[in-house]
TrEMBL record, chains A, B, C, D:
Its EC number is 3.2.1.86. Keywords: Carbohydrate metabolism, Cobalt, Glycosidase, Hydrolase, Iron, Manganese, Metal-binding, NAD, Nickel. Binds 1 NAD(+) per subunit. This is 6-phospho-beta-glucosidase. The lineage of its organism: Bacteria, Bacillati, Bacillota, Bacilli, Bacillales. The gene is licH. It holds the Pfam family Glyco_hydro_4C.
Amino acid sequence: MNGIKIVTIGGGSSYTPELIEGFIKRYDELPVNEIWLVDIEAGKEKLEIVGDLAKRMVKEANVPINIHLTLDRKEALKNADFVTTQFRVGQLEARAKDERIPLEYGVIGQETNGPGGLFKGLRTIPVILDIVKDMEEQCPNAWLINFTNPAGMVTEAVLRHSNWKKVIGLCNVPIGMKMMVANFLEVEPHRVEIDFAGLNHMVFGLHIYVDGKETTSDVLKRMTETNSTGTMENIVDLGWEPSFIEALGVLPCPYHRYYFKTDEMLDNEKENAVSSGTRAEVVKKLEDELFELYKDPTLSIKPPQLEKRGGAYYSEAACSLIDSIYNDRRDIQPVNTINRGAIQSIPYESAVEISCVITKEGPKPIIMDELPVAVQGLVSQIKSFERIAADSAVSGDYNKALLAMTINPLVPSDTIAKKILNEMLEAHKDYLPNFFEKVQ
Amino acid sequence: MNGIKIVTIGGGSSYTPELIEGFIKRYDELPVNEIWLVDIEAGKEKLEIVGDLAKRMVKEANVPINIHLTLDRKEALKNADFVTTQFRVGQLEARAKDERIPLEYGVIGQETNGPGGLFKGLRTIPVILDIVKDMEEQCPNAWLINFTNPAGMVTEAVLRHSNWKKVIGLCNVPIGMKMMVANFLEVEPHRVEIDFAGLNHMVFGLHIYVDGKETTSDVLKRMTETNSTGTMENIVDLGWEPSFIEALGVLPCPYHRYYFKTDEMLDNEKENAVSSGTRAEVVKKLEDELFELYKDPTLSIKPPQLEKRGGAYYSEAACSLIDSIYNDRRDIQPVNTINRGAIQSIPYESAVEISCVITKEGPKPIIMDELPVAVQGLVSQIKSFERIAADSAVSGDYNKALLAMTINPLVPSDTIAKKILNEMLEAHKDYLPNFFEKVQ
Amino acid sequence: MNGIKIVTIGGGSSYTPELIEGFIKRYDELPVNEIWLVDIEAGKEKLEIVGDLAKRMVKEANVPINIHLTLDRKEALKNADFVTTQFRVGQLEARAKDERIPLEYGVIGQETNGPGGLFKGLRTIPVILDIVKDMEEQCPNAWLINFTNPAGMVTEAVLRHSNWKKVIGLCNVPIGMKMMVANFLEVEPHRVEIDFAGLNHMVFGLHIYVDGKETTSDVLKRMTETNSTGTMENIVDLGWEPSFIEALGVLPCPYHRYYFKTDEMLDNEKENAVSSGTRAEVVKKLEDELFELYKDPTLSIKPPQLEKRGGAYYSEAACSLIDSIYNDRRDIQPVNTINRGAIQSIPYESAVEISCVITKEGPKPIIMDELPVAVQGLVSQIKSFERIAADSAVSGDYNKALLAMTINPLVPSDTIAKKILNEMLEAHKDYLPNFFEKVQ
Amino acid sequence: MNGIKIVTIGGGSSYTPELIEGFIKRYDELPVNEIWLVDIEAGKEKLEIVGDLAKRMVKEANVPINIHLTLDRKEALKNADFVTTQFRVGQLEARAKDERIPLEYGVIGQETNGPGGLFKGLRTIPVILDIVKDMEEQCPNAWLINFTNPAGMVTEAVLRHSNWKKVIGLCNVPIGMKMMVANFLEVEPHRVEIDFAGLNHMVFGLHIYVDGKETTSDVLKRMTETNSTGTMENIVDLGWEPSFIEALGVLPCPYHRYYFKTDEMLDNEKENAVSSGTRAEVVKKLEDELFELYKDPTLSIKPPQLEKRGGAYYSEAACSLIDSIYNDRRDIQPVNTINRGAIQSIPYESAVEISCVITKEGPKPIIMDELPVAVQGLVSQIKSFERIAADSAVSGDYNKALLAMTINPLVPSDTIAKKILNEMLEAHKDYLPNFFEKVQ
């Protein structure tokens, strides 16, 4: 390769400066010479704001990366080496509905593995499958690196509903868990290793090592007892019952609170919806503020306020992954990829989130211990949800969508599922062509 | 064998006349010559009432079956051919607590796969493992046929925590589903066949055949549309959303309402708790009435009122099973037995409820289709619950009990789980020696 | 159904009178009213001889079965209920080559799981796939019951290379093993039950029961020590080392001698080739004699000489199977069908030979113990051979054919494999259109 | 750790100077400060010769490694960090018998996966299990790194017949294959990566990459066509049929010639046995010459002649492995370890030879493609052989030994197996206490 070509779909996202910063930092080892930021008509203004900032950043850093802004996806994809996707169909307004509508029925929306995630999947999957079709034509050797949530469901859909195999789902949750442990232990992050296994936003740290020595049970004990299991910017920290975590024996991710502290999380979301707004609404404000900052023609670095946005370490995760593929580094990173027997309780051909060796040929899952018996059921349930949701997104089948909604562990009954489903279908009508070309 | 020896542990149960009637009817093909009814000191009075009725029944029927009543389990077990267990540790009072305590916290008790089932398991498993030890000594070639709930968890415990392999868990739910379909279709039951697979009280009818012709989707459609999916005496019939069942594609069991109609079931239980009492309390009254009837020295048949008790077809299931083992009939019956790969999404060595060929050497599961993707997760979750609950019952480990309670799909958080657990441990103290010999 | 329609492809086979006799005997329970015997132009004379005998047989028996003779396969298949296949592409001359050519290179031909079987498969599979295409059109609800060897490979090919699912492979080896055990024990056959598992001509009796009581190790010990493991008409009985069978712990089938007594079997085949001729040549003589008998217009029953032909119990196996499907008997019979996890060491979707419950919907494998570790490897090796051979038959790929030949356990090297392959390809040229339309 | 303690059992081996050289080279990153060379009384003289050379080598290299020579295994093991085993029970005389006796019966001896390997296993396994017992006492945190053949069977035995989990089997075959490919392509070895999977001496290169780009089919084609598949010092290069390798699609290891070129290998071994002697006899001469060299008090480096001995890259493999564990390098190396689902067609708990990430906690297999269908059978057969051989070594069960011998793919019949077994048991009597304390 003579310089790497990156295409970022949803390039007008507020996250883009993170990515740009990451490529700048790594320029010597990862010689990116073109970054194409792609967006749709409705996102044109943001694309230009972010794109201009990106151009100022590379200029300031004095690296020979060319930034291109375009609304023409096909042209952008031509001969791409890596395509990253971080778009949001229906934007934050749609996400706000994903969160608000279920709440009306006393149900957490949850934009990835909950009813909200179902609709985010229904809107996103047809688009990602279109992107994949364009890639088959324009850049058949590229890697697709997807950040768009629900990242597990989207990866599952690409793996099972297209012929595209070079897809990797990426999430900042595992890296966040590692940072959290490092902070708690007051050691540098590189001294901590965690064996990750599970699904996206449903991942567990099976073993925690410090300087290569296993310290899992000790760390778990101290973290829960001091109520320091930590969380992320976007998830309230309600702690854990120490006895529960001790018996569990593995480190849960922040999103597990939705399933193991459902009532408390629901109460919290209800309160927030009234006081500060749902997460989408909070993010909307943050983003508006960020874009105000981005407009400043004197700004030529990533503004520190971006880190509050909840996407901490995204750039780190993405650039590390691309770097390891490009340079065949064979280091270990947690990503979403095809299971192939690595986790015995999940179907062979499904997407899992797991520590992998990252090679030029992509990620290869590492065999680790089985998931604890205690969580195999919940993990399977979310996988069942993801699989049926993906099938429904592709077929536009109303009954399957109801089935996915009903089996979601956050949804308390088929009847409530139906009410939520019907209201959400109506609300998201414009973004669900597979459903509204068909008879319900 | 010269005449078969049956031992029934919990012989003072109100169900016993059903069993006696079953053995009387089948005497020609299944020559039982001894039935030992065993109970504990606290059950002595009931044992005598039921035992006297049993004696009058065999006399009236003029079959040479000897009925023995005893409190000495070991003596009774000597050289037994079949041991049936239908005891209830702590009796209906304990069950009432299993139902009432979770309700205080807004949680369904559910005496098999819910928090109530956890405690019924914790009380029952140490006793069944003791029985198995006695059987190893007294009747090493006998079959243990367990009716005591939670039948799945109890079978799991015997399979994984003892060396006894000749154990079968039995339930009247599958036979009830078959009868329900036959009634709906207005055909004789023997013309209906259903392929059953899943777990106890979490079993599905994968295929429904009438006269050997598959009619699953047609029957499902008509049953849900006419709100005739039916239920059992003890579970309120709240119907199903037709679209949900259509997408599911298999026949759920009545207990699935707890998981797919949780909120509505909870509301219903709360109402009942106030109006008619919990199920245990209703049953208590029914039983008191039954025992009044049983006392009548002129009664020498099973009184028809027994069928309201909820145990319809129990005798049918038990006697059919014993008959098929004794006579090596190789017919097909749904029972709880070791999985051995029959259901791929459940561990190889765990108990499943599945259609089996019943032979002299016991049940052999029949390979059928996989469980639908939509339910693999929930079924796994209940299996995870059963496994950890069984482990906790054996070890008396508080943390594991909390883990089991927390992962139960009816329980909304670790903190609520802990409150329920603590209150129930205290309430059932006298029946939990494994927990109260140890430090919590 | 108003009377059953049977179509027998390869109807001019010397086995046909067996089948006819079977249907006559069962007429009351299995009301066959049409049997269509189909053959090709080259087999017309035999078809007429056998067909006339068949007509005399039904007349003599006074049952209203209509016998039709035809060379028009499509017409015959119209609305068939059961299609049995017992044809031989290239007739006994081809089989003689299957046996003779490998012998020239010091290799056993073995018409099913050896080099001979590879070629029999290459000739047969394209034809069976054509038949299946005709069935899709003419009789989409019929069952295909295949006797044509190599029955395992042929079933594998239909399962994996067509959309036809209603296929069952049938063999008389398991029933022969059961008869052998019954004879040895001097009990009536119905008192013996054997759990069969493995592949076609590579099947094991995992457990032997007499009157429902397991007697496996005792029977094995006595049979091997008295050198009475028995065999079939077409396989020389070389006995077994008692210590070997004792450690094996299961009953091998007669064909296992090819793999566990390779050198002795080879010597024997070499001798026979010189003295009495190969098996095909012996059979040729027997068949000529049989057809002479069949021509006798006074003959109106199956002549007893047919039993020497090696196909003992074929009629029994076929008619029992059809009867159990038609009458939904749910009894247990060993057949070749899709594995679906019944034998863990064989791929889920591959054909296995295993005891099944026979229902109106077809065979359902019964879960039994795993194959002994000692034979899992050999069984897998034959399955690998069958799979690659089937793939090669469909694609006409020379390299795959060489691969299949080389991995066969009877073939000692890639170079010898190549020589045998090349000579056999040339010899069977006329029956291998997939290979000779293509460039080698 | 303050300096690493290495214990080498079989320290008097001619390979030892390789190891010493490896530790000297890596001293800066792998600070070994003690190497204990342990041998038995019969090996005392060699131990001293080799030990003295080792001492001269460290002195010459000026590294602070202390060399200890001892016959007291327990003392040596005290607080060891790594224990390497490279002993040979019965020495080369025993190996010569492993090779000669089968040849008398027309069977290849093959010291790892053949009849010779069975006996090497029977002699070695009781000793390794004794070593493990000593390690439990003396150095419970050490890693056992076994080079002693048959390395797969020995690893299997430790995994399944002891409680010791920190065991790794090591072989120079994969590294040899990598070197061979690099030589053929004329590139530096570090530019070649191969995904290895299979069993010891039965391993395949599933994918070959040069500079991170897959070139498997191209390399295979060119290698076979130019007859350059290469082999090892101790295995004759008979080439491969190009069509066979093309259809196989993966790189076989040199030992595969025993199974896919059996007749030719047998002829070659017979010739050698007459002309130059069996491999053991050749090695004996080489070793005698080496020990003559080692005695030279002026020699203080590893003599170049050692490389002819067949153990090329052993030191490289061992020192790299120890280095990666000690330094938690997380690089990829092929080793023998527990499968845990990495290769689906091999039992979960069995030993496999597979590319692993090497961490401080040991090797973690990487998920790769399944083994090609064509070889799953043969690989399973060798695994069956290894498992039964290991069981027999532990129990001293004659019948199991016969079973292992009979199912070996090199052995043509149960009767020949019995003859070879009986003669070998007699010949190795002194080293088979498990067999000769018992009744045969």
